[in-house]
Amino acid sequence: MPDMGMPTSVTDDFAVAEDACAKINLALHVTGQRADGYHLLEMLVTFARHGDRLGFAPADADDFTLSGQFADVLAEDPGTNLVLKARDLLREAAGGAPPVRIHLEKNLPVASGIGGGSADAAATLRGLLRLWGVTLPSETVAGLALKLGADVPMCLKSTPLIARGIGEKIETADTLPSFAMVLANPLKGVSTPEIFRRLVTKNNPPLVLKKTPHWMEAIRTTRNDLEMPARELVPEIAEISNMLAAEGALFTRMSGSGATCFGIFETPVAALRAAERLHAARPDWYFQSTETFAGGA
Q1: Peptide bond before residue 249 is cis, with ω within 30 degrees of 0
Q2: GHMP kinase C-terminal domain: which residues (predicted)?
Q3: Are residues 163 and 126 in the same domain?
Q4: What is the pLDDT of residue 130?
Q5: Which of 52, 120, 151, 225 is flagged as catalytic?
């Protein structure tokens, strides 16, 4: 049954545990492209209480284990896991560090537009800094995060924010409220490079948030420029968005490059009941009720 947050986890028995919260793009505007190929983005981002969870403990030798609903997907190719890359980068920056056992409880779909791998990498940086007792300048840690991926600096903060550039220019969105939400994914992989290749217009209007006390009104005036090309590639995105709306969502949109969509609901109870009904209708798809963090908390 879908739940609203982080349940009891095997990682609770570790010396250090970190949540890797799902990253939700409430808005994503593609405003240009750099000479090196990176796209320039302007994004309104929030984070959900639901996500992956990592545990860290001293060990005689480095060890990495997996559990959770989507563990099997990562287990097929552990060499691409950003958790291991984050561990190795931080160890190098610290001038060496003792062996560590890391356990990842993989609750988020892989390559789904909600920053799962990036959130895992950011949680690894936070967790190992604590476990190893390492103190590094914030600029150094931010540099490591960006080296791991454009989304990792945002996930390192895991608080409502506005991000620009390739995602590294960040300002907090302290007045953004918490939203009751259902995350929905048809469990079809989406290639982010392919979505960007299908994006016809690279120089779209920037993110301008309407000055209003009602954030929902402001969000409705924004866009996700990647949603239309993603829908062409994965028609189920349109179907799952319509399913959320039919369950009473006040607003629906795709997050990131997809294929995860979100629906914002009036109350957490409404979100929970919608997720239960959607899961019953399509048990082969991913539906998760949750709440997002409020800014300034």
Answers
A1: no
A2: 223-280
A3: yes
A4: 98
A5: 151
